[in-house]
Amino acid sequence: MHVSRFKTFFVWLRRALVLSMTIAVTLASPLSAQDFPNHAIRFVVPQATGGASDVLARLVGQKLAERWGQQIVVDNRVGAGGNIGTEIVARAAPDGYTWLLGFVGTHAINPRLYKNLAWDAEKDFAPVAILAVVPFVVVANPNLPAKNMAELVALAKAKPGEIRYGSGGNGTVNHLLGAMIASAAGVTLTHVPYRGIAIAVTNTVAGEVQLAFGSVTTALGQIRGGLLRALAMTSAQRTELLKDVPTMAESGFPGFDVTPWFGVLVPARTPPAIVKKINADINQLLGTREIAEKFAAQGAEPYPVTPEQFANIVRADIARWAKVVKESGAALD
Fold this sequence. Notes:
alpha/beta, 5-stranded mixed β-sheet
């Protein structure tokens, strides 16, 4: 009888342990994609308000929040060319509730620009979805006596180093575009970094600097208002919003094509089912007429891809921009 009770106790104990382990595993496991999201999402934008990243994040975040019935809180974390915000996401829990609005600067330029990054552009992130590609535009203060790229080059050659251009910071796309164009034209331009391209564009309007290389999203309002003169598009094709503005290729820079992407990335090891759900819902949103029209008004073009295609694009751009960074001579600690 005593032995029987002893065995019964151990059978009960074993079942209790199995049950407790099952509960623990269940609680530790991420929610299924069907349950996602069940609370607010933090959407980190590593650029200042008013830039292309910020505008696109807020447009998409608002529509997804309406669809999901959960808040998507845009958190602008500026500094170190986007590294501060990027690192926050790299170190976040891989549960799908912390997003990064990444772009060419964070994931293709910075890995070659900074020597001691605390994160790896490929190993520490899972690409989710590209929101859009956005052409950039060369803009000038209207008082600068140059109405096109040919006149700008001639002026820069006549006054080496006297023409100043603003950027969103050292090593940003805006900075390197200026370096690329100056190198291709054989001229010297003076770089003036600001804390965000929106500030650089504003100071171009004010005349503190004479040039900027910003996204259409950032500069369109000032161009249409006559506060800035558009000299050339950096994309291979003209944009519908600025039909009269020639491309760099049409302006004497054959083969020139820079049209950066802006996309959502999450910490590595985020459950693939959640990554796929976010991707599917974003891509469905990108296919709507409302988003297409809102993006077009900002000079952006929706660019739906799979997570795998996004990962391949990141890998290819890392190789492409490594060459640009090396040729520019730019390097930051």
